[in-house]
Description:
By secondary structure, the chain is an alpha+beta fold.
Amino acid sequence: LEAPAVGVFLERAVEQLELVVxxxxxxxxxxxxxxxxLIYGYAVGLDxxxxxxxxxxxEKKRPWDIGKSFANAAPIAPIHPATAxxxxxxGAITLDVxxxxxxxxxxxxxx
Length: 111
């Protein structure tokens, strides 16, 4: 996934790679053993946060979500159907920015 150009915002942004889960069927009070059946597919997402805006809003006791509300703040790659990938419970997930490792983990560690 390549992040779109966001100019000066990217210099102030903190990036996190995320596993995007696309829900294909609605459910209420779904038992954990049945939850996987509701998933349509998976994608890779980039969650960018402007910490400068977020901190400024927090200090002013205003909603901090403005730090996530700029153009191209959360691009995602194409969704791959779960029928093709199977459940994604484990696997390496890494984020490199300009050749520097910013994030390294395993899907099993994600909430």
